[in-house]
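Example record

The entry below shows one chain as it appears in the dataset: sequence first, then C-alpha cells.
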Amino acid sequence: MKEILEVIIKNLVINQDEVSITENTNAKSVCYEVKVAKEDMGKVIGKQGKMAKSIRTVMKAIANQEHKRVNIEFLD
C-alpha cells in the first residue's frame, strides 16, 4: 500500500525527492505520515481539501481489500 501512496503523491508534486512517507502499523490499522516540500503542500491538499480527501478514499478502498483500516496524515 505504501508504494501506491508514494506513486500518487510523487505524481502530484514538483519536488519528488522531498517526498517522505512513514508507515506505522498496528494489527488491523496502518497510519501513513506524508511529508512534502512546503511549495507542494497545496497541490497535495487541494482546494478545500478535496485532493487529500480523494487520496484518502483511494487508500481506504485498497486497505479494505486487505481487511485493514488506513489513516493518512499530511505533515508540514
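Notes for this example: The mean pLDDT is 94. The first strand starts at residue 20 and ends at 25.
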